[in-house]
Amino acid sequence: MLFATDGTFLRHSDGFGWRSTTKVVTWNIDFKTDKSQLWDYIDTEIHPDILLVQECKEYPSSYQGIGKHIGGTRLWGSMVLSKKYSLEPIYLPNHLGWVTGAKLEIEDYPVLVFSVHAKLKNIGGYVVPHLKHIFTDIMLVADDYEYLVIGGDFNAARLYDECILNLLKINTVPFLIG
Asked: Do the Cβ atoms of 36 and 47 come closer than 8 Å?
């Protein structure tokens, strides 16, 4: 299985050559921003076969979509959208709204696809322990599946930034900075 740098999912070779491609795009569309031109841009410029969105309140009716709002003050959530494939919902009870999955078939191959928005837990701003729980729950569902796509906003850069800032505060020589 190969992925192109533009996010295109390339099928494996079955001895008869490479199969067609499926373009998977992930995007945190930020619930606060103006969406008046967003969907037109996605449809005319990007042309995704599968779209994994986070912080999504609503989407055009031209898409089949799966997802739930987080609830409370967060009237948005993670969604799996497609105009090309039929989607069967997968909801992880411990992560409703934050993680949404779908079962679909690409050229007779069963595939699981997950849109993830990792919540920053109140444990010093670290997201990694929460990602571990999300990925563990996804892997429990994906047990018998050979093809799995996970995309989204992992909020992992915040962990990296905080670690680097802490390293700089204590006058160490960080090996990650050139």
From this structure: no
Please state the φ and ψ torsions of residue 87, each to the nearest 5 degrees. Answer: -115, 135
| pTM of the complete model beyond 0.90 | no
Q: How confident is the model at residue 46 (pLDDT cuts 50, 70, 90)?
A: very high
Show the tokens assigned to 60.
Answer: 């055009």
Res 98 pLDDT > 90 = yes
How would you classify the pairing of strands 147-153 and 109-117? parallel
Q: In Å, what is the CA distance from 154 to each residue of 49, 126, 131, 148, 149?
A: 22, 11, 7, 17, 14
- Euclidean distance between CA atoms 24 and 47, whole angstroms: 9
Q: How many CA atoms lie less than 13 Å away from 115 in the CB half-sphere?
A: 31
Q: Is the pLDDT of residue 79 over 80?
A: yes
pLDDT at 130 (0 to 100): 76
d(CA 54, CA 41): 17
Give the mean pLDDT of the chain. 80
Domains annotated on the chain, with CATH: 2-169 (3.60.10.10)
CA dihedral 72, 74, 76, 79 (to 10 degrees): -80
